[in-house]
Amino acid sequence: MKTKKMKRSSIICTYMLAAVFLLGCENEIPYHPGSHKPLLIMNALLTAGEAENYVYLHLSEGNSIKPVKQATLSLYVNGQLAEEPQPVTPSKNAPMTFCLHTVFRPGDHIRLEATAEGKDYCVESEVTVPQPVKSIQVDTCVTKILQWGGMRDYRRILVSLHDLPGEKNYYRLEVLNNYRIKASHPAPSLNEDGSQVTDESGNPVYHYKDTIFNYTDRELINREDIILTDGHISNSDQDEDNEMFPIINNKYNIFTDSQFANSHATLKVYTALGLDYLNGYQNVYASLQSLSVRVLSLNRDEYLYFKGLNCMDDDYDATLMEPVSLPTNVKGGLGFVGLCAGTQITMDFPK
User: Fold this and answer.
1) Is residue 6 a contact partner of residue 52, using CB atoms and an 8 Å limit?
2) Which helix (H) or strand (E) holds 23?
3) What is the pLDDT of residues 22-73, one digit of tens each?
4) Which residues contact 144 (CB under 8 A, 6 or more apart)?
């Protein structure tokens, strides 16, 4: 599932341009259009315990971004050089991508140093791996909830955790439904010479081809949980469409220990039972292979980063809501490097 992991990490690339306009936390860069030279942008969402983590580099250029032609990356762990990976960029127009194979542990102090275009651009970022929660408990059942105008079957998941004592803590909940999919998808019909087959009107002709692939569904419904909704609970998806007083949904399922400091809490979320929304596919058969539930411990800056991304998503209305700031912890440039540590339970399902 390397492709899915890279896709997950690259969500930060989509929004980092906004950091040129609005930057929060300790480092702030004023925005003056056309008055500053390009800056090197370094983005990464790293996870302790993972065998592979990805770092992305690109350049700011006015109000847009452009790819890096040549770059180096050095990783230091607890003051010692641990790795100098080579880029694995898939295409010329994509951010320059580096794959880290060093496995991070709770308490490790990480420093990333990057240069680009010779040494015209130099940036660095430091972050410490937080401590994960000691354990979690997971309970599931199938129940009906009001969704899409009717009562439908969903899988309810209860996740219990105990807060790390003696400090302010920041968390994120992830639920991964890992499916094995068998389906028919449209594929172009080709002539013997490899050219596209067309009909009498010149339109391309397609045929359906059977395929088997793995898919991870991350969608969660958290509207009934008082912690994940910050007290704005709801029993219906219709309440989310209030145009007069729009609510920013907690799409990344981040939360703090404000309501259960030094104590325990149980989160309640729902996931779909199937994958009816695979557009363009026919004869879809989705077999759930496993259900993975993770509670990730975040540093404060990473929590604020996800909170900023959440506000800048589809529901953001600049006329009704406050301006959004994104934190940056990259010195000498732009970007954000986050490092979380998780506690996970995986349940395998019978075929």
Assistant:
1) no
2) strand 23-24
3) 434 445 444 444 446 889 999 999 999 999 999 999 999 877 888 999 999 9
4) 151, 152, 153, 154
SS3 state of residue 95: coil
H or E segment and range at residue 79: none
* Other Cβ atoms closer than 10 A to 164: 18
* Amino acid present at 232: H
With a CB cutoff of 8 Å and minimum separation 6, the contacts of 62 are: 33, 34
pLDDT class of 253 with cuts at 50, 70, 90: very high
> Phi, psi at residue 270, to the nearest 5°?
-130, 150
- Exposure string (b/e) for 38-58, b if CB count within 10 Å is 16 or more? bbbbbbbbbbbebeebbbbbb
pLDDT at 36: 65
pLDDT tens digits for 89-136? Answer: 666 778 999 999 999 999 999 999 999 998 889 999 999 999 999 999
Residue 74: C-alpha distances to residues 84, 171, 198, 326 (Å): 5, 28, 51, 25
Query: Which one-letter amino acid corresponds to residue 235?
Result: N
CA angle 40, 170, 156 (to 5 degrees): 115
- Please, which residues have CB within 8 angstroms of residue 3's CB and are 6 or more apart in sequence? none
Q: At which residue do the structure tokens 């991070």 appear? A: 104
Residue 125 contacts residue 335 (beta carbons within 8 Å):
yes
Label residue 188 by pLDDT band (50, 70, 90).
Answer: confident
Q: Within 10-106, where are the H helices?
A: 11-15, 18-21
Strand, coil or helix: 82: strand
